[in-house]
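Hey, quick one: can you model this chain's 3D structure?
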Amino acid sequence: MDLGKIVAEGSPEDLKNRYGPKAVIDVELSKPPEEPEVVVEKVKQYASGDGVIYRNGGLRVHVNDPDIASPKIVSEMVGMGVGLKTLKITTPTLEDVFLRLTGRRLIEE
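Sure thing. Here's the predicted structure for all 109 residues.
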């Protein structure tokens, strides 16, 4: 549901399987970059759709193939001088599904 309108129906698992990205890469940065928007734009080339979110000192990247995307993302960020603290590959959440269906996060910051 988005702004009072039903955008998709199904169980949480069904929605994640149908509309979510194949995988999500969560990257925790050792320190915030001076220009986070530049980092987001560079990383978008490895994401599925526009699935890159920068928040709380890290990135959440929607990808189709994490085995291919994760080393490229790391290489790109290291080349830009961005320090990585951790990188985790996870499954999509309902917030990821909402972002994909509406183009925005559940709660905009």
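One thing worth noting: The helical segments are 12-19, 36-44, 66-79, 94-102.
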